[in-house]
Write a structure and sequence with these properties.
The chain is 47% helix and 8% strand. By secondary structure, it is an alpha/beta fold. The chain has one domain. The protein has a 6-stranded mixed sheet, with helices on both faces. Strand 1 and strand 2 form a beta hairpin. Helix 2 crosses helix 14. The longest helix is centred in the last third of the chain and has 28 residues. It holds the Pfam family TraB_PrgY_gumN. InterPro entries: TraB/PrgY/GumN_fam (IPR002816), YbaP-like (IPR047111).
């Protein structure tokens, strides 16, 4: 089965939303929004990133200890698989995903595989991503969510002193700026951020974890459901200020070669279930090393907290029927406003497995 969405969107964006002003938060959308995971790919590079945690353990153990202490304070910050229980209802499961095709990400633990295999329905962020025409329909109805529709172009909004760098980065991927000049800045950032090896796997037909789970379940005749729509996800991203996205392009270029190391480290943390460590890591590698300001607060509310509330509300009637396996980006799980906490507020017992 061809898992790529065949549309002009393929030439515009691939997976992660990435970086915001002064902070690498949009990288975290590898956990947050599945709709951005089909796209342009060049199949001539391999992943060769280093684990920044291992390097920090040697170069700055005190800094690493500070990050670990911060991670330890995150509610529900460790674990990918969570059991959801309430008397009189068959247990359901909550599983944190990373929207990548890395083989390490695709391999479920024995416990997660058993829960997934026995469950019905299988629930992902948006089941609309299974329909190749879904994104095109939204683009046709609301093109402004992904494209400039008022005569604006990337050349006009990217700072003049950064424009040559953007052109060079695109050229390395075989993409002339003129072919993507009408894209919203966040789509350009997505294109620049994703490692070539990940892009290559998707170009070759590999499905990222969420789609893989849904497709395999569908082939077995199980029910598939979604907690959001494509429009929900695109609308959340498009609602953030333009400067937020433009600054993301600039920071992406500033991080440059470090991107492979960031992806490798995030992947290792994910596989270990050490989700609470990911936000502190992102702060530590961002150009200014901080997590303050309106940009971050707005990103956290619109891309994380608000969506968590929507997911929890829409998941509840599904969980109430029992035996569901709910797979969403792992960073939707931890924190006081995370799905684990929100489901507990609905009087479910939610425990890490």
């Amino acid at each position: 089965m061809d898992n790529n969405i065949s549309s002009p969107f393929d030439h515009y964006a691939d997976a992660l939303l990435r970086l915001c002003a002064g902070l690498s938060w949009l990288l975290l959308a590898s956990f947050f929004a599945v709709v951005f995971s089909a796209g342009y790919a060049r199949a001539d590079e391999t992943c060769a990133g280093s684990n920044l945690i291992e390097e920090m353990a040697k170069s700055d153990p005190a800094k690493l200890e500070t990050l670990r202490k911060e991670a330890a304070t995150t509610p529900n910050g460790h674990g990918l698989l969570w059991k959801i229980e309430k008397p009189g209802i068959k247990p359901s499961w909550l599983y944190g995903t990373m929207h990548l095709t890395d083989p390490r990400v695709l391999k479920l633990s024995d416990a997660a595989q058993a829960a997934y295999s026995a469950a019905d329905p299988i629930v992902i962020e948006t089941d609309e991503i299974l329909d190749p025409k879904g994104i095109m329909k939204v683009m046709a109805e609301s093109p402004e969510l992904m494209m400039f529709t008022d005569g604006t172009t990337l050349e006009k909004v990217i700072p003049a002193d950064k424009l040559d760098g953007v052109k060079a980065a695109l050229s390395e991927r075989g993409i002339p700026l003129s072919s993507v000049n009408k894209m919203q800045p966040w789509m350009l950032t997505s294109m620049l951020a994703l490692p070539a090896c990940e892009m290559a796997r998707k170009k070759q037909g590999a499905a990222f974890l969420d789609i893989k789970l849904a497709q395999e379940a569908k082939e077995k005749g199980k029910q598939i459901a979604g907690l959001e729509t494509i429009r929900d996800q695109l609308g959340a991203m498009a609602s953030l200020p333009a400067k937020f996205h433009i600054d993301g392009v600039v920071e992406m270029l500033a991080l440059g070669p470090k991107m492979k190391d960031i992806f490798e480290t995030m992947t290792v943390l994910y596989v270990q279930g050490d989700i609470g460590m990911i936000f502190p890591l992102m702060r530590s590698v961002s150009p200014d090393g901080t997590a303050s300001g309106q940009n971050y607060a707005e990103f956290e509310e619109k891309m994380v907290s608000a969506r968590n509330r929507t997911m929890a509300e829409r998941a509840e009637p599904i969980i109430a029927k029992g035996n569901a396996f709910i797979a969403v980006g792992a960073l939707h799980l931890p924190g006081e406003q995370g799905l684990v906490s929100l489901l507990k507020e609905q009087n479910y017992t939610v425990t890490a497995q």
